[in-house]
């Protein structure tokens, strides 16, 4: 089917892009601004984008559990190998943490009744009308709790340079942006309604991480560029998935009619 072919091309393209950007990441630039490690930015963003897409496949695929587990382990090893050698000491494991947390979250969401389906698999008339930004009381409470948790983490991490501490925090930033991207692109609403949220949230989380990690000036630039390029690559990839007809839909609740 044409949609399946597009997904295959997307997967092959990401594999090729990961290898190419990983090779180019070893190139050091001589610039008057001191950003000699700038080629590492696309490699980092590409690897984390692939981590999110891998998690999505593991959570929604109809393949056998053993095949999905093998894909998860193989993909995690592949993505860790893409991390530039000079960054492995500080950021080794960030792709793996992103994959584990995102996959676990998507499996919980699936258990709660959200399904990943093609439009041909369900009646268009049964779908709810597209909605814009709409928040429930429960959503606001969860958002408040998350903000409080982030503030507590920021207080604990301030000035810390221990990778064991700040790597999971940055991984959670990628997870948050990834999940919001899924909601924005694969939900019922048009991506243009929700997409801007992704591109505002991502650099904000990047600035939060740079602040808590005590990044130097060049570090701030690297982090913000990664957190700008990552959602661009991810949203672009998810738009391809959406163009194939796939959506995240909530399982309809059976209702009984009382005469």
Query: What is the terminal separation in angstroms?
Result: 45 Å
Determine the fraction of residues in helical runs and give it as a percent range: 55-70%
Mean pLDDT: 78
User: How much of the polypeptide forms β-strand, as a percent range?
Assistant: under 5%
Please state the overall shape, judged from the principal axes of the Cα atoms.
Answer: globular
DSSP E strands, number? 2
Order of helices and strands: HHHHHEHHHHE
The helix count comes to: 9
How is the main sheet built?
A: 2 strands, antiparallel
Low-confidence stretches: 122-141, 253-259
From the helix content, strand content and strand pairing, which structural class follows?
mainly alpha
- What is the quaternary state of this protein? single chain
Structure description:
With 259 residues, the protein is mostly helical. It has one domain (2-123, 142-249). It is 69% helix and 4% strand. The protein is built from 9 helices and 2 strands, in the order αααααβααααβ. It has helices at residues 2-24, 40-60, 65-82, 88-91, 94-111, 137-157, 163-186, 191-212, 217-243, and strands at 114-118, 246-250. The chain has a two-stranded antiparallel ribbon with strand order 1-2. The longest helix is centred in the last third of the chain and has 27 residues, at 217-243.
């Amino acid at each position: 089917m044409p949609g399946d072919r597009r997904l295959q091309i997307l997967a092959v393209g990401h594999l090729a892009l990961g290898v190419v950007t990983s090779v180019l990441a070893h190139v050091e630039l001589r610039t008057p601004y001191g950003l000699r490690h700038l080629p590492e930015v696309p490699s980092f963003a590409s690897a984390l984008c692939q981590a999110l897409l891998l998690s999505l496949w593991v959570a929604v695929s109809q393949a056998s559990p053993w095949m999905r587990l093998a894909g998860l382990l193989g993909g995690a090893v592949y993505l860790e190998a893409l991390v530039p050698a000079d960054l492995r000491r500080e950021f080794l494991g960030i792709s793996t943490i992103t994959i584990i947390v995102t996959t676990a979250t998507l499996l919980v969401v699936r258990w709660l009744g959200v399904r990943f389906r093609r439009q041909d698999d369900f009646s268009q008339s049964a779908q709810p009308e597209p909605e814009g930004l709409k928040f429930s009381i429960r959503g606001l409470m969860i958002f408040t709790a998350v903000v409080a948790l982030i503030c507590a983490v920021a207080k604990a991490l301030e000035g810390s340079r221990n990778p064991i501490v700040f790597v999971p925090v940055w991984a959670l930033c990628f997870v948050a942006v990834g999940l919001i991207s899924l909601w924005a692109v694969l939900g019922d609403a048009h991506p243009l309604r929700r997409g801007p949220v992704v591109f505002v949230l991502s650099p904000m989380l990047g600035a939060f991480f740079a602040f808590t990690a005590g990044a130097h000036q060049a570090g701030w630039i690297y982090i913000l560029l990664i957190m700008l390029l990552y959602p661009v690559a991810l949203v672009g990839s998810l738009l391809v998935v959406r163009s194939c007809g796939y959506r995240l839909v909530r399982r309809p609740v059976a209702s009984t009619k009382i005469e």
